[in-house]
Design brief:
alpha+beta, Ribosomal Protein S5, domain 2, Alpha-Beta Plaits, nine-stranded mixed beta sheet, four-stranded antiparallel beta sheet, 13 strands, 25% strand, kinase, fucokinase activity, GHMP kinase, nucleotide-binding, transferase
Protein backbone atom coordinates (compact mmCIF):
# COMPACT_ATOMS: atom_id res chain seq x y z
CA UNK A 1 0.00 0.00 0.00
CA UNK A 2 1.31 3.43 -0.96
CA UNK A 3 -0.30 6.58 0.39
CA UNK A 4 0.23 9.48 -1.99
CA UNK A 5 -0.55 13.18 -1.76
CA UNK A 6 0.05 16.27 -3.81
CA UNK A 7 -0.36 19.94 -2.99
CA UNK A 8 -0.25 22.70 -5.63
CA UNK A 9 2.25 25.54 -5.74
CA UNK A 10 0.91 29.08 -6.01
CA UNK A 11 1.42 32.46 -7.57
CA UNK A 12 0.69 35.40 -5.29
CA UNK A 13 -0.76 38.41 -7.10
CA UNK A 14 -0.98 40.94 -4.27
CA UNK A 15 -0.71 41.45 -0.54
CA UNK A 16 2.35 39.31 0.15
CA UNK A 17 4.01 40.59 3.31
CA UNK A 18 0.77 41.58 5.03
CA UNK A 19 0.41 37.93 6.12
CA UNK A 20 3.69 38.03 8.07
CA UNK A 21 3.32 38.56 11.85
CA UNK A 22 3.03 40.89 13.62
CA UNK A 23 1.42 42.96 10.85
CA UNK A 24 -1.83 40.91 10.51
CA UNK A 25 -2.39 40.87 14.28
CA UNK A 26 -2.07 44.65 14.44
CA UNK A 27 -3.66 45.78 11.16
CA UNK A 28 -5.12 42.75 9.40
CA UNK A 29 -3.64 41.37 6.20
CA UNK A 30 -5.03 40.41 2.79
CA UNK A 31 -3.55 38.33 -0.04
CA UNK A 32 -4.82 37.45 -3.51
CA UNK A 33 -3.37 34.24 -4.97
CA UNK A 34 -4.05 31.30 -7.28
CA UNK A 35 -2.66 27.78 -7.45
CA UNK A 36 -0.96 26.39 -10.55
CA UNK A 37 -0.23 23.00 -12.10
CA UNK A 38 3.09 22.55 -10.31
CA UNK A 39 3.07 20.37 -7.21
CA UNK A 40 4.80 19.00 -4.15
CA UNK A 41 4.39 15.22 -3.85
CA UNK A 42 4.65 12.86 -0.88
CA UNK A 43 4.59 9.05 -0.94
CA UNK A 44 4.36 7.01 2.26
CA UNK A 45 4.86 3.24 2.37
CA UNK A 46 3.94 2.03 5.87
CA UNK A 47 5.70 -0.95 7.45
CA UNK A 48 5.78 -2.71 10.80
CA UNK A 49 9.19 -1.49 11.89
CA UNK A 50 10.04 1.45 14.14
CA UNK A 51 12.27 3.14 11.58
CA UNK A 52 11.32 6.11 9.38
CA UNK A 53 13.37 6.28 6.18
CA UNK A 54 12.94 9.54 4.24
CA UNK A 55 14.26 10.12 0.71
CA UNK A 56 14.21 13.32 -1.35
CA UNK A 57 14.04 12.25 -4.99
CA UNK A 58 15.05 15.77 -6.10
CA UNK A 59 18.26 16.03 -4.10
CA UNK A 60 19.11 12.36 -3.53
CA UNK A 61 19.11 12.96 0.21
CA UNK A 62 18.24 10.25 2.68
CA UNK A 63 17.70 10.25 6.44
CA UNK A 64 16.84 7.42 8.78
CA UNK A 65 15.90 7.54 12.43
CA UNK A 66 14.41 5.18 14.95
CA UNK A 67 11.17 5.85 16.78
CA UNK A 68 10.68 7.13 19.41
CA UNK A 69 14.13 8.78 19.27
CA UNK A 70 14.17 12.53 19.74
CA UNK A 71 14.11 14.43 16.47
CA UNK A 72 17.25 16.45 15.77
CA UNK A 73 16.92 19.40 13.37
CA UNK A 74 20.17 19.71 11.45
CA UNK A 75 19.18 21.10 8.07
CA UNK A 76 18.60 17.69 6.48
CA UNK A 77 14.94 17.21 5.54
CA UNK A 78 13.84 19.03 8.69
CA UNK A 79 10.39 19.76 7.24
CA UNK A 80 9.68 16.03 7.20
CA UNK A 81 11.02 15.43 10.69
CA UNK A 82 8.91 18.26 12.08
CA UNK A 83 5.77 17.08 10.27
CA UNK A 84 6.17 13.53 11.62
CA UNK A 85 6.73 14.88 15.14
CA UNK A 86 3.84 17.37 15.18
CA UNK A 87 1.45 14.83 13.62
CA UNK A 88 2.43 12.26 16.26
CA UNK A 89 3.68 9.53 13.94
CA UNK A 90 4.67 6.50 16.05
CA UNK A 91 5.13 3.81 13.42
CA UNK A 92 7.66 3.06 10.72
CA UNK A 93 7.46 3.92 7.03
CA UNK A 94 9.40 4.81 3.93
CA UNK A 95 8.72 8.39 2.81
CA UNK A 96 9.58 9.74 -0.64
CA UNK A 97 9.41 13.44 -1.60
CA UNK A 98 9.38 15.26 -4.93
CA UNK A 99 8.62 18.85 -5.96
CA UNK A 100 8.18 20.57 -9.31
CA UNK A 101 10.06 23.64 -8.03
CA UNK A 102 12.91 24.02 -5.55
CA UNK A 103 12.67 25.80 -2.19
CA UNK A 104 13.35 29.51 -2.61
CA UNK A 105 11.71 29.73 -6.04
CA UNK A 106 8.95 32.06 -4.84
CA UNK A 107 6.15 29.60 -5.65
CA UNK A 108 5.55 28.53 -2.05
CA UNK A 109 7.11 25.13 -2.64
CA UNK A 110 8.30 24.56 0.94
CA UNK A 111 4.84 25.23 2.39
CA UNK A 112 3.20 23.11 -0.31
CA UNK A 113 5.51 20.25 0.68
CA UNK A 114 4.50 20.58 4.33
CA UNK A 115 0.81 20.64 3.35
CA UNK A 116 1.37 17.51 1.24
CA UNK A 117 3.12 15.86 4.20
CA UNK A 118 0.27 16.71 6.56
CA UNK A 119 -2.23 15.44 3.99
CA UNK A 120 -0.45 12.14 3.49
CA UNK A 121 0.08 11.57 7.22
CA UNK A 122 -3.55 12.47 7.91
CA UNK A 123 -4.63 9.86 5.34
CA UNK A 124 -2.24 7.28 6.77
CA UNK A 125 -3.19 7.88 10.41
CA UNK A 126 -6.89 8.32 9.51
CA UNK A 127 -7.11 11.69 11.22
CA UNK A 128 -10.13 13.80 10.21
CA UNK A 129 -8.92 17.31 9.38
CA UNK A 130 -10.50 20.22 7.51
CA UNK A 131 -8.58 22.31 4.99
CA UNK A 132 -8.31 25.05 7.64
CA UNK A 133 -6.85 22.58 10.15
CA UNK A 134 -4.38 21.22 7.61
CA UNK A 135 -3.19 24.72 6.68
CA UNK A 136 -2.90 25.76 10.34
CA UNK A 137 -0.95 22.61 11.20
CA UNK A 138 1.43 23.23 8.29
CA UNK A 139 1.91 26.79 9.53
CA UNK A 140 2.66 25.54 13.04
CA UNK A 141 5.23 23.08 11.66
CA UNK A 142 7.10 25.73 9.69
CA UNK A 143 6.79 28.80 11.85
CA UNK A 144 6.51 27.42 15.38
CA UNK A 145 8.25 24.05 15.42
CA UNK A 146 11.07 24.96 13.02
CA UNK A 147 11.08 28.72 13.69
CA UNK A 148 11.34 29.53 9.96
CA UNK A 149 10.50 33.18 9.35
CA UNK A 150 7.57 33.72 7.00
CA UNK A 151 3.89 34.34 6.53
CA UNK A 152 0.67 32.36 6.41
CA UNK A 153 -0.58 32.63 2.85
CA UNK A 154 1.25 29.67 1.27
CA UNK A 155 -0.16 26.99 3.56
CA UNK A 156 -3.75 28.11 3.01
CA UNK A 157 -3.31 28.48 -0.74
CA UNK A 158 -1.96 24.92 -1.04
CA UNK A 159 -4.60 23.38 1.21
CA UNK A 160 -7.60 25.06 -0.48
CA UNK A 161 -6.43 25.49 -4.10
CA UNK A 162 -7.89 27.75 -6.79
CA UNK A 163 -8.28 31.53 -6.75
CA UNK A 164 -8.55 32.80 -3.19
CA UNK A 165 -8.73 36.13 -1.40
CA UNK A 166 -7.32 35.32 2.02
CA UNK A 167 -7.77 37.64 4.99
CA UNK A 168 -5.59 37.44 8.09
CA UNK A 169 -6.73 38.69 11.48
CA UNK A 170 -5.39 38.56 15.04
CA UNK A 171 -7.03 35.23 15.89
CA UNK A 172 -8.29 33.87 12.59
CA UNK A 173 -7.78 33.36 8.89
CA UNK A 174 -10.66 33.58 6.39
CA UNK A 175 -10.30 32.02 2.94
CA UNK A 176 -12.67 33.54 0.39
CA UNK A 177 -12.78 31.34 -2.75
CA UNK A 178 -13.32 33.52 -5.83
CA UNK A 179 -15.66 32.47 -8.63
CA UNK A 180 -13.71 33.69 -11.62
CA UNK A 181 -15.56 33.46 -14.91
CA UNK A 182 -13.94 30.92 -17.27
CA UNK A 183 -13.38 33.54 -19.98
CA UNK A 184 -11.63 35.82 -17.47
CA UNK A 185 -9.42 32.98 -16.27
CA UNK A 186 -8.52 32.04 -19.83
CA UNK A 187 -7.73 35.63 -20.74
CA UNK A 188 -5.60 36.08 -17.63
CA UNK A 189 -3.66 32.91 -18.38
CA UNK A 190 -3.19 34.03 -21.99
CA UNK A 191 -1.71 37.37 -20.93
CA UNK A 192 0.61 36.21 -18.15
CA UNK A 193 4.26 35.19 -18.46
CA UNK A 194 6.25 33.32 -15.83
CA UNK A 195 10.00 33.86 -16.14
CA UNK A 196 12.66 32.18 -14.03
CA UNK A 197 15.30 34.75 -13.10
CA UNK A 198 17.73 32.37 -11.41
CA UNK A 199 19.19 33.15 -8.03
CA UNK A 200 17.35 30.99 -5.51
CA UNK A 201 17.05 33.21 -2.46
CA UNK A 202 16.88 32.75 1.30
CA UNK A 203 13.43 34.15 1.91
CA UNK A 204 13.79 33.98 5.71
CA UNK A 205 16.60 36.56 5.61
CA UNK A 206 14.50 38.98 3.57
CA UNK A 207 11.44 38.48 5.78
CA UNK A 208 13.47 39.01 8.94
CA UNK A 209 14.76 42.29 7.51
CA UNK A 210 11.21 43.34 6.59
CA UNK A 211 9.84 42.47 10.04
CA UNK A 212 12.72 44.24 11.74
CA UNK A 213 12.04 47.41 9.77
CA UNK A 214 8.33 47.21 10.55
CA UNK A 215 8.92 46.74 14.28
CA UNK A 216 11.19 49.81 14.27
CA UNK A 217 8.44 51.80 12.57
CA UNK A 218 10.40 52.44 9.36
CA UNK A 219 8.12 54.79 7.40
CA UNK A 220 8.73 53.21 3.98
CA UNK A 221 8.04 49.68 5.23
CA UNK A 222 4.88 50.66 7.11
CA UNK A 223 3.63 52.61 4.09
CA UNK A 224 4.48 49.78 1.69
CA UNK A 225 2.51 47.22 3.71
CA UNK A 226 -0.56 49.47 3.88
CA UNK A 227 -0.36 50.00 0.11
CA UNK A 228 0.00 46.26 -0.55
CA UNK A 229 -3.12 45.50 1.47
CA UNK A 230 -5.17 48.14 -0.38
CA UNK A 231 -3.88 46.93 -3.75
CA UNK A 232 -4.94 43.38 -2.89
CA UNK A 233 -8.55 44.55 -2.46
CA UNK A 234 -8.41 46.58 -5.69
CA UNK A 235 -6.92 43.68 -7.62
CA UNK A 236 -9.56 41.25 -6.34
CA UNK A 237 -12.29 43.60 -7.59
CA UNK A 238 -10.59 44.03 -10.97
CA UNK A 239 -10.35 40.25 -11.36
CA UNK A 240 -13.97 39.61 -10.41
CA UNK A 241 -15.28 42.10 -12.99
CA UNK A 242 -12.76 41.13 -15.67
CA UNK A 243 -10.83 44.42 -15.88
CA UNK A 244 -7.55 42.69 -16.65
CA UNK A 245 -5.59 45.66 -17.98
CA UNK A 246 -6.32 47.31 -14.65
CA UNK A 247 -5.19 44.07 -13.00
CA UNK A 248 -1.87 44.29 -14.86
CA UNK A 249 -1.35 47.91 -13.86
CA UNK A 250 -2.05 47.03 -10.23
CA UNK A 251 0.63 44.34 -10.43
CA UNK A 252 3.08 47.12 -11.27
CA UNK A 253 1.89 49.32 -8.40
CA UNK A 254 2.16 46.36 -6.04
CA UNK A 255 5.74 45.67 -7.11
CA UNK A 256 6.72 49.27 -6.43
CA UNK A 257 5.12 49.02 -2.98
CA UNK A 258 6.74 45.64 -2.31
CA UNK A 259 10.20 47.10 -2.92
CA UNK A 260 9.57 49.57 -0.08
CA UNK A 261 9.54 46.75 2.48
CA UNK A 262 13.23 45.90 2.31
CA UNK A 263 16.29 46.79 0.24
CA UNK A 264 16.89 43.04 -0.18
CA UNK A 265 13.71 42.36 -2.16
CA UNK A 266 15.17 43.28 -5.54
CA UNK A 267 18.62 43.47 -7.09
CA UNK A 268 20.16 44.86 -10.31
CA UNK A 269 19.50 41.64 -12.26
CA UNK A 270 15.80 41.55 -11.35
CA UNK A 271 15.42 45.28 -12.00
CA UNK A 272 17.05 44.82 -15.41
CA UNK A 273 14.64 42.05 -16.41
CA UNK A 274 11.62 43.95 -15.13
CA UNK A 275 12.52 47.23 -16.84
CA UNK A 276 13.18 45.35 -20.08
CA UNK A 277 9.73 43.72 -19.88
CA UNK A 278 8.06 47.10 -19.35
CA UNK A 279 10.02 48.62 -22.24
CA UNK A 280 8.83 45.83 -24.54
CA UNK A 281 5.17 46.28 -23.61
CA UNK A 282 4.36 44.54 -20.31
CA UNK A 283 1.81 46.48 -18.24
CA UNK A 284 3.14 45.24 -14.93
CA UNK A 285 4.50 42.37 -12.94
CA UNK A 286 6.16 41.31 -9.72
CA UNK A 287 8.70 38.95 -8.31
CA UNK A 288 6.97 36.02 -6.64
CA UNK A 289 7.70 35.19 -3.02
CA UNK A 290 9.70 37.24 -0.55
CA UNK A 291 12.11 38.55 -3.20
CA UNK A 292 15.76 38.30 -4.15
CA UNK A 293 15.35 35.76 -6.97
CA UNK A 294 13.12 33.03 -8.31
CA UNK A 295 10.17 33.65 -10.64
CA UNK A 296 9.05 36.92 -12.21
CA UNK A 297 5.35 37.16 -13.13
CA UNK A 298 4.44 39.58 -15.92
CA UNK A 299 1.15 40.75 -17.42
CA UNK A 300 1.40 41.51 -21.14
CA UNK A 301 -1.23 42.48 -23.73
CA UNK A 302 -1.44 39.54 -26.13
CA UNK A 303 -0.01 41.65 -28.97
CA UNK A 304 3.18 42.22 -26.95
CA UNK A 305 3.52 38.94 -25.05
CA UNK A 306 5.75 37.28 -27.65
CA UNK A 307 7.94 40.39 -27.88
CA UNK A 308 8.42 40.47 -24.11
CA UNK A 309 9.14 36.74 -24.05
CA UNK A 310 11.77 36.98 -26.77
CA UNK A 311 13.49 39.92 -25.06
CA UNK A 312 13.67 38.11 -21.72
CA UNK A 313 15.07 34.95 -23.27
CA UNK A 314 17.70 36.99 -25.09
CA UNK A 315 19.15 38.15 -21.75
CA UNK A 316 18.96 34.74 -20.07
CA UNK A 317 15.45 34.60 -18.64
CA UNK A 318 13.83 31.16 -18.75
CA UNK A 319 10.11 31.05 -19.57
CA UNK A 320 8.05 28.40 -17.80
CA UNK A 321 5.01 26.59 -19.19
CA UNK A 322 2.21 26.51 -16.63
CA UNK A 323 -1.52 26.83 -16.09
CA UNK A 324 -3.96 27.44 -13.28
CA UNK A 325 -5.13 24.49 -11.18
CA UNK A 326 -8.31 24.86 -9.14
CA UNK A 327 -7.69 21.86 -6.86
CA UNK A 328 -6.07 22.04 -3.47
CA UNK A 329 -4.45 19.24 -1.48
CA UNK A 330 -5.35 15.73 -2.66
CA UNK A 331 -4.44 12.34 -1.17
CA UNK A 332 -5.16 8.79 -2.24
CA UNK A 333 -4.03 5.18 -1.86
CA UNK A 334 -2.33 3.18 -4.59
CA UNK A 335 -2.12 -0.58 -4.11
CA UNK A 336 -0.39 -2.63 -6.83
CA UNK A 337 -1.73 -0.38 -9.56
CA UNK A 338 -5.25 -0.30 -8.14
CA UNK A 339 -6.40 3.19 -7.13
CA UNK A 340 -8.55 3.60 -4.03
CA UNK A 341 -10.53 6.54 -2.69
CA UNK A 342 -9.27 10.11 -2.92
CA UNK A 343 -9.69 12.55 -0.07
Amino acid sequence: MIIRSKAPLRISFAGGGTDVPPYPEEHGGAVLSATINKYAYVNIIPDNRTVVNVTSLDYELNIKYHLPSAVVYNGKLDLVKAALKVMGVDRGAKVYLHSDAPPGSGLGSSSSMVVALVGAIRHWMQKPMTAYEIAHTAYEIERRELQIAGGMQDQYAAAFGGFNFIEFFRDSVVVNPLRIRPEVMNELQYNLLLCYTGGIRLSANIIEDQVGRYRKGAAQTVKGLAELKEIAYQMKNALLVGKLDNFGELLHQGWLSKKKLSSKISNPRIDELYELALKKGALGGKLLGAGGGGYLLLYCPYTRKHVVAEALETVGGKLIDWNFDLHGLQSWVSSEGRIEGMI
